[in-house]
Amino acid sequence: MRVTYKTAEPERLHARELASTATPIAISFMAESAVLLTNTYLAGRMGVLSLAAIGLGAGILYPLTFAGAGLASTSSALAAPYANSVLLKRRVLISGAIVCLAVTPLFIAVSFGLLYYLAIFDIDKELLRQSSHYMLAATPLVPLVLIFSIYRGILTVEAKSSTIAHASYLSVGINALLAPLLAFFMNLGIAGLAASTAICTFSMVAYVMFLTRNWKLESANVNCSCTSEIISICKRYLVLGVPVAFIGLLESGMFLVLTGFAASFGVGLMAAHALAISISDVVSALAFGIGEASTARLALYRARTGGVDDWPIYRATVGLAFVVGAIAAFSIYVLQRHILLAFVSANYYGYASEAFYTISPTFCLFVIFDSIQSVQYRALKGVEDVRIPLLLTSLSYWMTGVLVGIWLSTQTKLGRHGIWIGLLAGVTTAAVLLHLRSIRCLRSRSS
Question: Are residues 276 and 59 in contact, defined by beta-carbon separation less than 8 angstroms?
Answer without folding.
Answer: no
